[in-house]
Amino acid sequence: MKSTANAATVLLVDDEPNVTDALKRVLRQEPYEILTAISAAAAQEILERNHVDVVISDEQMPGMSGSVFLSGVRKQYPHTIRMVLSGQASLEAAVRAINEGEVYRFFLKPCNATDLVFTVRQALSHKRLADRSRRLLREYQKQASTLARLESDIPGILRVHTDDEGAVLVDESDGECDVNTLLAEIELAMTVR
Questions:
Q1: Which residue, 36, 100, 101, 190, has fewest beta-carbon neighbours within 10 Å?
Q2: Using one digit for the tens of pLDDT, what is the confidence trace for 109-129?
Q3: How far does Cα 38 stand from its chain's mean position?
């Protein structure tokens, strides 16, 4: 297990410890913190205590199938990437995993080690982009709210006049307000909120 401040966390879930050990060996060169569980219940406990970026779960496990487990992960931790590893090429299991757990990838045992490594990398890259997109959206919404408050407090403040080349024009001819007064009003409106 490699642990760095920005290391992604990967949870491997399989009722056969030799499978999780093999997967750990496949991922050992990657900068991930690897957690393992031998059942869906044990994996759920790990998820409750740790931030997990990727879950790779066996489909056929006693107590709860991987697709049912991953469906619960999707509901509780929607931004965690979910993958299935199955020893049985059942179309029904694959469809269930995709529909209920919205899995990112369905692997057949034994899976190709290189394919697993690159798929996890790709999934984490996708997750980082999605996380960044959500942060940018929240930032945009906050800024839009601030602008709406300013427009409400100082009607017309968002109206901008430009010349033919796109330069902003400031009209001080009415003598009611100069640029410095306007900036002071904006600053005051921002501090009052």
A1: 190
A2: 888 899 999 999 999 999 999
A3: 26
- For the stretch 34-46, pLDDT in tens is 999 999 999 999 9
| Sheet with strand 105-108: strands edge to edge | 32-37, 8-13, 54-58, 81-86, 105-108
Six-digit token pair at 67? Answer: 């697709």
Sequence-ordered strand ranges (E) for 61-185: 81-86, 105-108, 161-162, 168-169
Q: What angle do CA 9, 53, 111 make, to 5 degrees?
A: 80
Specify whether domain 8-134 bears CATH 3.10.20.580: no
Query: What is the SS3 string spanning 35-87?
Result: EEECCHHHHHHHHHHCCCCEEEEECCCCCCCHHHHHHHHHHHCCCCEEEEEEC
Using DSSP, state whether 97 is helix, strand or coil: helix
The domains of the chain are located at 8-134, 139-192
Strands (DSSP E) along 68-174, which ranges? 81-86, 105-108, 161-162, 168-169
